[in-house]
Amino acid sequence: MTPWQERRRAYLAMLRVEFANATHYRATFLVFALQSTMPLIMLAVWWAATEDGPIRGMGPGDFAAYYLASLAVRQITASWLVWGMNGEIRGGGVMMRLMRPVHPFLAYSAESLAQMPLRLLAALPPMIFALLWLGSAHFTRDPLLLGLFLVSLAGAWLCEFAILVTIGTLGLLVESSIAIYQVWLGVHALLSGYLIPLTMIPEELRGAVALLPFRYLLSFPIEVLLGSLSRGEALRNLGVQWAYAAGFLGVALAVWRAGLRRYQAYGG
Prior knowledge:
The longest helix has 35 residues, at 231-265. α4 packs antiparallel against α8 (116-134). It contains 13 helices and no strands. The protein has helices spanning 3-24, 26-34, 38-49, 60-77, 81-91, 94-98, 104-114, 116-134, 143-169, 178-191, 203-211, 219-225, 231-265. It is mainly α. 74% of the residues lie in helices and 0% in strands.
């Protein structure tokens, strides 16, 4: 068996173990999933605000489609990786990760991916409800855009994972990276489209916000799903999204190497 086959076999084994853990602690998972219901609150706010007419071209149905899609996308891409990493770093569990035959980042990704079936179960109800309530008119029926939506969803997950593993790794360099994570969450909620659609941001700021990575974590997949982008626009933005993902992974690996040197130097 080649080294690559051994690592592949080890990774598949980790996926099975982590899926068993996820199903065993499904009540805890449900609590975390229910914490991602802010889109429903914002939907109620915007629904009331549009009683007198559309706002920047968006009516009640448009806001309903957007926030229900946001709820589903966030369920799939969100992660609480930073909390676990900080606990392992403080408790010394990170050294056990280094003794395994795969890179710790792959182990962390296995934990997240193993939760995906449960995440999909949490994401399906709002999407089914959206289709039953709103019909298909608010969502794209273009098969290419639907395919690009799935790819953009994978890209959003990868960007989110790379950013969070970077923040978690900062725990090797500072006492705790939780405070950094809390700041990140606040900025993410505002600039990713989680709290408000990016079209609601003042026009003079919209161009700058579109260049930042936050859009590609949430708003971009939603825009593709709702048919707000043409095929060409979706493809171009998909390239930007995956370039961000590759860049974030590179940063995460660099921070990991620097943090590990410091952690080992201090006898962590």
